[in-house]
């Protein structure tokens, strides 16, 4: 491996000199500890990283978009240059296979370059201009111009299940840096080496492109100490998080209880309901079973868009269930991301199996081995499902629950579900044409609706919404994937009666940047 791992945090442009161990990565396949020992920063160093971010903000937030785009592209180039190191270290730390590491690296660098293009194009700032009308009666109208401006330093918590795309230089970091916000990253203990490899890339890119010190820091240490110190510090203005519901709720509470509360964009749990309509099940039952099985077991089921809840109407589905059973019972076991996540999956599936009214449809029990997961499918009647809120929760891993009932009962259940990242319907053309009320009920519960597809596989693009009502996320008005994520880290500002020279370029007469704007209510 060309990267030498030091095991220390990155504080602005320097390395932490803390000495207290924050642990080592553990290979989830073997249980073997991986060098080096990671060291937590001292609380003084955490304060220093935050102070540097605060000092960097005025300069970084007013750099021309082209300079920030150059920084984002340089980060992407630096990461691409060490993809072999990521492909070597990543599987050891996460149990995820090398092709996944390479694929996720490409997604991450593509994401950074997409944000670079977005800010170069410039229209994302939502510039609005209302020209003055001094002669308006009964009162003159002032010249008023508005656009989005960055919030300030952002704390980003790395996700265990996406060591690249939702971690050090992942979606939240790319969105915040694109918006003009310095970023303080809290590393995840599951993949500290990958975090350091990527952190070094961001550091090199910041120095090479002349960014102010403090635009980026990477901090090891515990969530309760280092993470909470970030969330509670008055300099920090927003938080991005992907992980457990308890972790997300703790951060939301801390952020809400600050003297100045700040937004927390926490992605927590989602079971991503899939409604199978009878015609589709009869027409292509086996293909549906194969598609759902692929989606359920992808990445050992450790995707936030994993289909954990399937509605199957009564009176159909024999071929579908037979195929699903065959696939599940012959499925290989898979290493999960870490011991805690594997244990949590086993406990969740044991709880489902023990719940009155729940039946196991398929489970490769014989292949159940320590530190590995096998897929499992349960079923329950819709009325029993409605009685027991525990059955609405996430089994983070390759586990799903099939809920059976009449179509009317299924539709009546949708409003009782918690908020979701996705909701899927499979139907024939005729069935879909008469499913408007079902689809609109699903729209009220989810951030992304899918017809005749599967929820895993989240495209990074301008129109993606990877968000949803609570508890899928803490704030369903935003997305963590795609360019709309930039809005998380901005707020609108109006300039009233300003001379041209004091206005941001985006708002000046003659539209010098040539961006799409709204002028007196018309899009130009
Ligand atoms: P996690 O336990 O929530 O940890 C994520 C990050 O948040 C870590 O950096 C952790 O710090 C920090 N953290 C957690 N609780 C905190 C608290 N009370 N105060 C401050 N910081 C806190 O999530 P995880 O380790 O990724 O996985 C645990 C479970 O979360 C999984 O089994 C799964 O159920 C769920 N999960 C869901 C998704 C999803 O997308 N739906 C994704 C990942 C995980 P430390 O480093 O100190 O632990």
TrEMBL record:
The keyword Oxidoreductase applies. Keywords: Oxidoreductase. InterPro entries: Ald_DH/histidinol_DH, Ald_DH_C, Ald_DH_N, Aldehyde_DH_dom, Aldehyde_DH_Superfamily, ALDH_KGSADH. The keyword Oxidoreductase applies. Residues 22-331 form the Aldehyde dehydrogenase domain. PANTHER family: ALDEHYDE DEHYDROGENASE-RELATED (PTHR43353:SF3), SUCCINATE-SEMIALDEHYDE DEHYDROGENASE, MITOCHONDRIAL (PTHR43353). This is 2,5-dioxovalerate dehydrogenase.
